[in-house]
Design goal:
Elements: E1 4-7, E2 10-13, E3 16-17, H1 18-25, E4 29-33, H2 34-47, E5 53-58, H3 65-74, E6 77-80, H4 83-91, E7 99-101, H5 108-117, E8 121-124, H6 127-140, E9 144-151, E10 173-174, H7 178-185, E11 191-197, H8 208-226, E12 233-235, H9 252-264, E13 269-272, H10 276-279, E14 283-294, E15 300-304, H11 313-317, E16 323-325, E17 333-339, E18 348-356, E19 363-367, E20 387-392, E21 395-400, H12 405-409
Parallel strand pairs: 4-20, 5-6, 5-13, 6-7, 7-8, 8-9, 9-10, 9-11, 11-12, 12-13, 15-17
Antiparallel strand pairs: 1-2, 2-3, 4-14, 14-15, 14-19, 16-19, 17-18, 20-21
The structure holds ligand LLP.
Length: 413
């Protein structure tokens, strides 16, 4: 068995008990399961095995170097969303030819960097961006491969904050404007339209919109090929959701079954950009109870040493994460709001949970926080970024040390 599960009273990661790791390293602490990352990467790879595909892991989900390296050794390529993520990808050992670069607001410096490296493709967002890339490429005498990120105006039926495929969202080139942009791009010497790209949102659990978006992409590719554009690949983005509360969600196999019949008729190689699907269940945030405050209504506030600075998903998206004790304590169950230590009422990790006899010092895990957890952490209230541990082959090792106040203040003049 891999990942986070209970062995008797203890929560373990790949068989290694978590409480001693938390005691040794302190909390808040992120812990990752190498075996889960590998299994989930392979599940996607195998689901698409019958069709030419390349997985470009979306670094934005979690780009801690050791994890990026692990994905590379599993055979993954990379999807970077900033110059910083391109740099991390290179440091993790990815070749420029294994990196695609997406992003709604790429700066001149970032574009210069990507063009200079000769990455696999820049996923472009607008006609203006194509002009800027063309000018940079022309001044260097190179030709850059681009993929047009299309906004298909399809509702991904997910949380509004992470829905990106509607016309009203800032992302991509409006479907109806694509043909004109292609016509204007054709004569440019610095860019070559090599692909089409979509990414309609994240935490998608209804495959219908993903199929519809792929169908739109295939139709457009056929039309553009007919008019003489040499499309080489279709990038279908990421977005496949995971189950945070145990309710059934589509598997990697379901995902492939939803996409492959549609893309197969194009004959074009596909790029996949999964992030959450690989990383979310592979990580947990360990935290300790710092106070228990009884309320008049019989409920208690269980105050943790982790909050919105370590995991902002509950506050930003009203996201549900299971919160479980590292060692089950016998005793009376109480209704609790599990909250963080920050000076914000929104700093609530879990509302109306049932907790067994919570006491100061108890250790808990906020589960399924491997994706969009650590990467979205902040220093609000002068809090320090947590350390990170990777459990691999039965051993736990620190892959990122805890930030110190000196690290933080080193930036200040
Ligand atoms: N490709 C592109 C172009 C993206 O924008 C994203 C995610 C992905 C791939 C990976 O999507 P995934 O497979 O992870 O769904 N912070 C939010 C999620 C933001 C997703 C942003 N884009 C959250 O915590 O739910």
């Amino acid at each position: 068995m891999t990942g986070f599960y209970r062995r008797d009273a203890s929560l373990v990661c790949d068989g290694v008990p978590l409480a001693p790791i938390a005691e040794a390293q302190g909390t808040p602490l992120y812990v990752y399961s190498a075996a889960t990352i590998a299994a989930r990467y392979r599940a996607i790879d195998e689901a698409f095995a019958t069709y030419p595909h390349t997985i470009h892991y979306a670094l934005k989900a979690n780009s801690t170097l050791a994890l990026a390296r692990l994905l590379r050794t599993l055979g993954s390529n990379a999807d970077a969303n900033s110059g910083g993520e391109i740099d991390v990808a290179l440091r993790a050992g990815f070749l420029p030819s294994q990196i695609v670069f997406t992003g709604v607001g790429k700066t001149r410096d970032e574009l210069e960097y990507a063009v200079g490296l000769g990455i696999k493709a820049i996923n472009v967002e607008s006609g203006g961006e194509i002009e800027r890339i063309d000018a940079i490429a022309a001044s260097r005498g190179v030709r850059v491969k681009i993929a047009l990120r299309i906004n298909p105006d399809i509702d991904a039926r997910t949380h509004a904050h992470i829905s990106t495929g509607r016309k009203s969202n800032k992302f991509g080139i409006a479907f109806d404007r694509t043909r004109e942009i292609v016509r204007r791009t054709a004569p440019r010497r610095g860019v070559q339209i090599a692909g089409l790209h979509i990414h309609i949102g994240s935490q998608i659990t209804d495959l219908g919109p993903l199929t519809a978006a792929a169908r739109a992409l295939v139709g457009l590719a056929r039309e553009l090929q007919h008019e003489g554009t040499a499309i080489e690949h279709l990038d279908v983005g990421g977005g496949l959701g995971v189950s945070y509360d145990g309710s059934p969600v589509p598997s990697a196999g379901d995902y492939a079954a939803a996409l492959l019949p549609v893309v197969r008729e194009s004959g074009l190689a596909i790029i996949l950009e999964p992030g959450r699907q690989i990383m979310a269940p592979a990580g947990a945030l360990l935290t300790q109870v710092v106070d228990v405050k009884p309320q008049d209504d019989g409920k208690v506030f269980v105050v943790m040493d982790a909050g919105m600075t370590e995991i902002i998903r509950p506050m930003l998206y009203n996201a549900f994460h299971r919160i479980e004790p590292l060692v089950v304590r016998e005793g009376e169950s109480v209704a609790a709001d599990i909250v963080g230590p920050l000076c914000e009422t929104s700093d609530t990790l879990g509302r109306d949970r049932t907790v067994s006899a919570p006491q100061v010092g108890d250790l808990y895990a906020v589960l399924d926080t491997g994706a969009y957890g650590s990467v979205m952490a902040s220093n609000y209230n002068r809090r320090l970024l947590p350390a990170e541990v990777l459990v691999e082959d039965g051993a736990a090792r620190v892959i990122r040390r805890r930030q110190t106040l000196d690290d933080l203040l080193a930036l200040e003049l």
